[in-house]
Amino acid sequence: MDVLYGLHAVEEALRAGRRKFDHVLVARERHDPRLTNLVSLCREAGVRVQQAPREQLTDMTQTTGHQGVVAYVRPQDFLTIEDLLVAETDQDGNPKARLLLALDGVEDPQNLGALLRVADGAGVDGVILTERRAAPLSPVAIKTSAGAAEHLRIARVVNLVRSLEELKKKNIWVIGLDERGESDYDQFDMKGDCVLVLGREGEGLHDLVRRTCDHMLRIPMAGGVSSLNVSTAGAVVLYEAARQRRAAALPAAPAASKPKKKQKGLGS
Q1: For position 234, what pLDDT does the model report?
Q2: Nearest-5° Cα angle at 202, 151 to 196
Q3: What one-character DSSP code corresponds to residue 251?
Q4: Global confidence as pTM
Q5: Tens of pLDDT along 69-96?
Q6: Closest CA to 15 of 45, 46, 49, 39
Q7: CA 235, 241, 246, 250: dihedral to nearest 10 degrees?
Q8: Which of 103, 142, 207, 220 is 20–30 Å from 71 (CA)?
Q9: Distance of CA 20 to the CA centre of its chain
Q10: How far apart are CA 84 and CA 122, in angstroms?
Q11: What is the pLDDT of residues 127-169, one digit of tens each?
Q12: Can you give 133-185 as a three-state secondary structure string?
């Protein structure tokens, strides 16, 4: 069984309905409306709830950040690249341009969690994680994502370069983010099918991954440092992509009509 902890993480896992819950432990010392609501959600979903001392929850999770809630759940099922390639349609039945996020060896679970939260908020259609030399989807990452990880479509791959090549064969642009990129991120058209690739903390993209990218973008920096933290940089670019897509979906504003000339009356 996997362990989830934190109010948001457990609540969103319940709402998403993807995980099979075994039981939920709540701190005996905690009594407040938020916990009461969570217990009600558990009962509605048929999930057993037990009370335990807060110290026991701390021992189980090895952290004091559990907020008095710990859940035992079945491991999350990951998707494949083929699953992410399934065409989606918008509300009108038209093909929807896909926005994917690929992480090339992000090792900090808090950065991973922050990126998953951003991806969910920006409307990303799928996230690609690597199996090796990268942070796992751990309880820390899930809690940092505020439960967003439970709503995202996540694929895990062994070879990121090979997976990116598969996406390119399906006419999905592969866009890398690097301080040495040739174009500013806000000057690039991200309204079509594309996957944004983010690299390791401090090291950036691996050479093979960089060479696989169709375009390399940068975030212009006006201060003394040359780059942003990977989760912050991801937020900047993903929300720019979301902004472009929203703007493209808005109906065109009607052209302003010229004011009619005032006609002179008789005898004027």
Answers
A1: 96
A2: 40
A3: P
A4: 0.87
A5: 999 999 888 999 999 988 777 777 778 8
A6: 45
A7: 150
A8: 103
A9: 22
A10: 17
A11: 999 998 899 999 999 999 998 999 999 999 999 999 999 999 9
A12: CCCCCCHHHHHHCCCHHHCCCEEEECCHHHHHHHHHHCCCEEEEECCCCCEEH
* Total Cβ atoms within 10 A of residue 78: 14
Pairing of strands 69-73, 2-5: antiparallel
Q: Which residue has the tokens 């021992």?
A: 59
* CA pair distance 103, 138, nearest whole angstrom: 15
Residue 60, amino acid? M
- Per DSSP, the residues of 57-123 read HHHHHTSSTTTTEEEEEPPPPPB-HHHHTS--B-TTSPBPPPEEEEESS---HHHHHHHHHHHHHTT
Which comes out higher in pLDDT, residue 203 or 237? 237
- What are the residues whose beta carbons fall under 8 Å from the beta carbon of 220, sequence distance 6 or more? 184
Give the type of residue at 111: N
